[in-house]
Structure formats: C-alpha cells, structure tokens
Amino acid sequence: MAFNEELWNKMNEYKDYIASKGWLKLTKERLKKDDFKCVLCKATEKLTCHHITYQRLFSEEINDLIILCARCHSRIHRISPPIDQPKFSKQNVLSQIFAPSQKELKQTIDRVFK
Q1: DSSP the chain
Q2: SS3 content of the chain, % helix, strand, coil (to 5)
Q3: For every one of its 114 residues, what pLDDT tens digit does the chain have, with 9 covering 90 and above?
Q4: Which of 8, 56, 67, 68 is an S-S bond match for 73, by CB 3.0 to 4.6 Å?
C-alpha cells in the first residue's frame, strides 16, 4: 500500500485535537450525560468518548458522541471501522455486539441516543 500523506496529516491533526482542551470539555460533558458509564454495558472503568459520526469532526455536537468502555469501543470498531463511520447504523452495530431481543435493542437505542 502506498503512503497516503493526506490521510497521515489528518490522523496527526485528529491526534492533536483529541489532546485539546476543547475535546476534553466535550468528553466531560458526554461523561456527565451518560452517567459516567459505558452506554452499552454500563462499565465504569476504561471509558472513552466515541464518535458516532465524523461528519462534524473538529466541531462535534454532544449527540455526535457516546461514552464506551474499552471493550465495547473495540467491538464497535471491529464492526464499523472509523473509515466507515458515516455508514454507522445504531441498530446494526448494537445488535451485532449484544444480539438482544428487538425490544431490548429499541430500549437501548432510545436510551443511548436520547
């Protein structure tokens, strides 16, 4: 695979952004909104702020993000890698991770994306 300088630069810009005060503020807001728990499994350790969409990257709104634990975050990226994130389907990803009943799935989606 050939070196993609544009992608490399974007990755570095993103890395710098994730370390910024603005990102930290958004993460804190999202943590509060999600009760300092992973929205999928309710874990309270190794939490991370995950982009549901990258459409507003660098100017995200609070509902563009969710809190996930490291385990759920890894699972989501196996199903929907960041490069494919615009194709993210809430129902598809959650059902592939947890395979709950349709009722449980709807309740989870409603709770997470309220």
Answers
A1: ----HHHHHHHHHHHHHHTSHHHHHHHHHHHHHTTTS-TTT---SSEEEEES--TTTTS--GGGEEEEEHHHHHHHHHHS-GGGGGG--HHHHHHHHH---HHHHHHHHHHHT-
A2: 60, 10, 35
A3: 455 677 667 777 888 888 899 999 999 999 999 999 999 899 999 999 998 887 888 889 998 899 999 988 888 877 655 544 444 444 444 444 444 555 665 666 666 655
A4: 68
Size of the chain in residues = 114
Q: Is 108:40 a contact under the CB 8 Å cutoff? A: yes
Residue 85: Cβ-neighbour burial (10 angstroms; 0-12, 13-18, 19+): middle
pTM for this prediction: 0.65
Rounded distance between C-alpha atoms, residue 107 and residue 90, angstroms: 12
- CA 51 to chain CA mean position, Å: 4
